[in-house]
Amino acid sequence: xxxxxxxxxxxxxxxxxxxxxxxxxxxxxxxxxxxxxxxxxxxxxxxxxxxxxxxxxxxxxxxxxxxxxxxxxxxxxxxxxxxxxxxxxxxxxxxxxxxxxxxxxxxxxxxxxxxxxxxxxxxxxxxxxxxxxxxxxxxxxxxxxxxxxxxxxxxxxxxxxxxxxxxxxxxxxxxxxxxxxxxxxxxxxxxxxxxxxxxxxxxxxxxxxxxx
Length: 212
What we know:
This protein is an alpha/beta fold and 212 residues long. It contains 2 helices and 12 strands; from the N terminus they run ββαβββββββββαβ. Mean pLDDT is 70; it is low at 1-38, 175-190 and 201-212.
C-alpha cells in the first residue's frame, strides 16, 4: 500500500465488518473493535494492536487459482494458512516481503515450480509446510528451510536436497525466478483477491485476524 493516510478512515473508529462478495459466495471478515482515535493517538493505537494476531487462515476450502503477488503488501502478517485448497501456479516471490512471518502453510495444493530462494529472508519463520504439491528442484541451501523436518517437503516427487533424502541431479534448466511456469486459474471457487487485498490491506497493516 502507498500514498497518504486516508482521512476518511478517521470516521470509522468502530468498524466491525468488511463484507466481500464473489460470484458464488459472500465472504465476511470480522474485525476487532478499537475505541482509540486512530487519527489523534497513533502511538496508543500501535501499542494496542501489537497484541492482535495478524493471521490469515483460509485452509480446508476449495479455493483455486494462483496466490496473488499482492499478498506481499501485508507486511505485518505473522501467520498465513493456505493449506488444503486447489491453489495452482508458483509460490510468489513477494511472500519474502512478509518479514514478520512466523508460519507459512502451503501444503496440499497444486503449486508448481521451485521454492523461491528469496524465502531465506524470512528470519522469523518457525513453521513451514509445502508438502503435497508439484514443486521441483533444489530446496534452497544454507537456509533455515533446511532446518525443517522432511515432512514439510514430502509429496513433491521432483523436489530434492536436504532435508529430503533424495539428492539432486544435474540442473534441467529450471528458471530461478519461475518465469517458465505460467499461473493457471480456472476461476472455480476463486476468492476475489483484488478486492480482498484492497479492502484489507490497510487494516491488516495494523493487525487483523481473518479466517474462513
